[in-house]
Fold this protein.
Amino acid sequence: MPKKYGILLLFILVKFLLQYQVIDPEYQLHRDEYLHLDQGQHLAWGYVSVPPFTSWISWIIFQLGNTEFWVKFFPALFGALTLIVVWKTIEELKGGIYALILGSTALVFSSLIRLNMLYQPNSFDILAWTSCFYLIIKYLNSENTKYLFYLGIAFALGFLNKYNIVFLFIGFVPALVLSPHRKIFTKKAFYLSAGLALMLILPNLIWQFQNDFPVLHHMKQLAEKQLINQDRMNFVKEQFLFFIGSFYVLLVGIVSLLVFPPFKKYRLFFWSLVFILSLFIYLKAKGYYAVGIYPVYLAFGAVYLEMALKNGWKKWLRPLLVIIPIIMFALIFRIVFPVYAPDDIDQILPKYQKYGLARWEDGKDHTLPQDFADMLGWKELASLVDSAAVLLSKGEQTLILCDNYGEAGAINFYSKNKNLKAVTFNADYINWFSLEKPIQNVILVQDPDDTDKERKREQPFFEKVIKIGEVKDLFSREKGAAVYLLLNAKVDVNTILKEEMKKGE
């Protein structure tokens, strides 16, 4: 094995080790992770909030034992694969061993560790963007049409993972039109590869059509409830933070496309960056939506710096440029990642606030970063549900009804009672109710902001209402979420649920 691939293997090992060390044991899985895991138990060609790819991975995780180890393994794997693609991109750009080390260091010791620590579509999204850019470079260098077909497959997989990759297409096409490479539009292979991509994503498009395009409803809700709180200048600021330790590599990579003669053929990458970022800024997108853009520019920057620092005194700068990302990563390690137990975060809360890390989707600062708060209280909630379940008589049909998908998914993951499945009118769970038999009892989980503490609404429908308890974790977003046991229905619960489901639709 060539020496350089031994170095690549070392970087991959470091990547995996870091991913398993950045979360304190007090934290549990994240709210979104539970939903994605449950999607693997209900395979379909689409879901309310995401395309089907993540559900396929969830199905694999379930076959492997459905443990937290495997939940964390796959985003780490996608991060490692992104590293490999960047490595191959540097090789394609004629970079040597120094460029490979610099580019790999810049990528590994970056915000990708944060994104790759959660089982969400974001990790594969970044891999898909990076793979598409790599295949474009391969085609520009060789004009071998097979890379257009590979590109079609990579785009389709990215689309089936997260619709965010559409912005790559929207931004890259005008850059292509403005470049000498516009001749690609005259090639039959271009349209055949586009047809291949369309064929691969068609089942999801059909699913969207058959279900009245829930993605449009999801995007509307996202815009009204989350993106409305996003600030365009904050989006711009966040772009500097993603690769704060190696920003110079990124910046050099972007500028080199305009000034470095060997990169002239890749100049369309500069304009695609301008178009894509402009679109994200206009739409008030979340900062991390754009992360997939940058790995390819780290490759450009690493190759250019290797060339620029190869002679005279400048070559002594080479080790420094490799060390800086590692030093910066070490300095921000305890701020960016949940390595502190929740009780200890008060000590450094001002630092979180300074960098905007304590700001939640509601636009306000809180005592814990939102992602951290979304990883607490779930085991406690599942334990309360189990306490309710032991009070039930055998053979009675019982439903666990929650207020949100995080609660339902966490109960399904942590509960010791695998005979009962939690559902909610929220997200995809609305399609997963089992109402074949009459519901006799309900274990009800209510959000912390629910005002009906005595369950006056449900009391007329059940013979007995018992409050089991509520989540006590001070730092959890679910603090105050309460569990009630509603026994012996006096009405047709199934009919009521069906009416509520129609409202949810």
Summary: Residues 345-369 form one domain.
